[in-house]
Structures are given as structure tokens and as C-alpha cells.
Amino acid sequence: MIKENIFERIKRMPRMNYIKEPTPLYKLEHLSKALGCEVEIYIKRDDLLPFGGNKVRKLEFLFAEALKYGADTVITGSTVQCNHNLMALLIANMEGMKTELILENFAKPDYKYASDPNRQLFEFGGVRKIDISSEPITGQISSMELALNRKDELTELGEKPYILERGGTCPLGNCGYVICADEIISQASDMEIDFDYLICPSGTGGTQMGLLIGFDAANYPITVLGISVAFENEKHLVGLSRILDQTEAFLDVQVPIEKVHSVDGYLGKGYAKPTPEVKEAIELTARTQGVMLDPVYSGKTMAGLIGMIRKGEIKKGSKVIFLHTGGFNTYYDYSSMSELVGETNII
Ligand SMILES: *Cc1c(COP(=O)(O)O)cnc(C)c1O
Questions:
Q1: For residue 333, how far is its CA from the centre of ligand 1 (angstroms)?
Q2: What is the predicted pLDDT for the residue at 67?
């Protein structure tokens, strides 16, 4: 199989058609100026994807697989701060499936589901069951006992549960970001711009590794920089190389390992723990461009980009794409709703 055919190959795979058009890619003129005009910053607005974030690119493939399998229930999970949980629930509803979530609360030892701002949203969406895990579920969710046991229980009851990988990260899910590289390349070509860097948050790394594989397959000379938002670099690189290996094997491609870049120094005290630089990045981006970032993923990534520019680590005159992965869907206060009596009984 020749390398260049990778996009066509992926586009022939079963996939739901939730994403109707490319997300916008445009220059952050004012922000570039505020940072001294040394680097031209562009933004790829994956926060504007249907359902509000990056996970939908993965879920287009995974829901196609779930439907093919005839699933009636989706068991999935991720950290409590991840946009995957709500998105998976909403899409499952759209496809007529029930959802059971496993929420990881390892970043917040005092976490209580009862006071989780997302709780009301999960309950509006009719989540069937919530389990809380205090451990980070490393690797694939299918390796997780909780999910597997639940799958057995439901199967015994005559249901057809489908375990959807943690955060949607698995070789099939990552294909969503492989073809996103193709989308970006064609936008860049329409804009007649050659981009030097793409910077994105790296949680499980599915987004970053998918993009890297895509750009490499197309021989597009861009450096993909991931800002680790979850782990110290050394540990994160181990995870990244595992995700890369698995996805390479699935697609029968090979990317030189030197192309995996994980930028150190912006994690702060850990996952979902913002730093003063994150606050500055959120304020600066909102005030100069009217784009809101979140404190867990995109804010940390913008803090990384700003830090790199200030330190001169990004060459003067470079053109950089900042991938906004979303994660800003809980900004209304639903807490007063929990005092209301009455429930929908139809579902
Ligand atoms: C999950 C998530 C990410 C990280 O994506 P990975 O593919 O897990 O690295 C980034 N931003 C937001 C808003 C997310 O929810």
C-alpha cells in the first residue's frame, strides 16, 4: 500500500457523517501582535465541531463500529474534566443507545459526583449509570475491569454493550485526526500558506499521534508539538509511543520516532491543575480574539505556545497552527436545577 493513499483508505472505512464541513482555520491577528509579531499564530477551531470538541472526530468512527456490532449500550469513560463523556452520551442518545460512564477523578481527591458541574448535564442526557474510578485508567478502557465486568453483566441480561475506548483513543478512533491532517493541508493550500508548526494539547495523545501520522503520510513538512496536559514528559512519551505504535500497525505506516515532540514545562502541578500562565493565556486569547479557552487543555496549550514564543523557541517568522480542541461546554450554572422537582419519565 503506498503511503499517500492513507487518507483515501481511511475515508472508505465505516464512519458516521456528523461533521459536515471543515472547521475554520484563520489567523489570530491581534494575538500575534500582542505577542510581538515574531510568530504568526493561526487557529484551527475544532471547538466548533458538532458536540463541541475534538472527540467527535474519533467518535464518528467508533459509533459506526458500535452500530455495525448492533450495540444497544455504550460503556465508556474518561476523566471528569474531559469533553468525551458528555459527547459520547449525546451521540449515543442520537443513535438510540443507552450510556454508562466511568468517570476518573484522580486529579481531584475531593471530587464528589453530587457537586460535579457536569452532573446535571449527564442527568439531563439520561445517563443510565455512573461509576467513579479514583485511578487513572491507563491504556485502553477494554483493559479496565470495571468496564469488562459490566459488559459481562449486561450481556447476561441479554443486552449488547459496546466498550468505547477511554477518551475515544484507539487506532480506529485516532483515524479521525489522521484525516484531519488532510483537511488542514487542503485549507493551507487554499490559503497559499506553508505552516511550520501545529501545536495541540496532548492528553491520551490520540489527537497528536493521529495528526502526526497524517502529516507524515502526506510528506507535509510541519512540526507537530504536543503540550502534555496530563503527565510529566518522560511518562507521557512512553504513552505516546504506545499509541503511535498501535495506530501505525493498524494503518500499516511508520513514522520516525524523532518526529514525536512533547513540549516540557507547562504541565504545572498536574492534570486539570491550571498555572498562572494558563490564566494569562485564557485572558489574552479572550480579550484579543474573542476566543474562549478551557483551563485543562486548550488554556495550557496556549500557555505553552506563548511561553515558547517568549523564549524564542519558535523561529521568528514562523507560521503556527494552534489546535483548539474545545472543552468549554459547561459555562452555565445548572446547579439550581437540582432543586427542582419532576423528572422526565418517557425514557
Ligand atoms: C480529550 C481532550 C483533549 C486531548 O485529546 P487526546 O486525544 O486525549 O490527547 C484535548 N482537549 C480537550 C478539550 C479534550 O477533551
A1: 23
A2: 98
The answer to whether the beta carbons of residues 165 and 141 sit under 8 Å apart is: yes
Spell out which residues line ligand 1, taking CB within 6 angstroms.
Answer: 53-54, 82-84, 167, 169, 201-208, 297, 325-327
Residue 118 lies in a domain: yes
Q: Does 75 reside within a domain?
A: yes
Q: Is the pLDDT of residue 193 over 60?
A: yes
Nearest Cα residue to atom 3 of ligand 1: 203
Do the bridges between strand 161-163 and strand 197-202 make them parallel or antiparallel, or are there none, so unpaired? unpaired
How much is the pTM?
A: 0.95
In a domain, 113, yes or no: yes
Give the C-alpha separation, 334 to 315, whole Å.
45
Instruction: Point out the domain boundary residue: 139, 168, 197.
Output: 168
> Which ligand 1 atom is nearest residue 327's CA?
13
Number of domains present in the structure of the chain: 2
Identify the domain containing residue 45 by its residue range.
2-54+170-324
Give the pLDDT score at 1. Answer: 47
Mean pLDDT of 2-24: 91
Q: What is the mean pLDDT of residues 152-170?
A: 96
Task: Say how many Å lie between the CA of residue 347 and the centre of ligand 1.
Answer: 30
* Mean pLDDT value across residues 236-257: 96
- Atom number of ligand 1 nearest to Cα 58: 7
What is the strand order of the sheet 40-45 is part of?
25-27, 40-45, 319-324, 197-202, 223-228, 261-263
Closest CA to 176 of 49, 33, 272: 49
Q: Is the predicted pLDDT of residue 333 greater than 90, yes or no?
A: no
For residue 159, the CA-to-ligand 1 centroid distance in Å is 30
Same domain, 278 and 211: yes
Q: Are 326 and 59 in contact (CB under 8 A)?
A: no
Average pLDDT of the residues in 194-223: 97
* Cα of 100 from ligand 1 centre, angstroms: 20
Q: What is the mean pLDDT of residues 86-112?
A: 93
Ligand 1 centroid–CA 156 distance in Å is 34
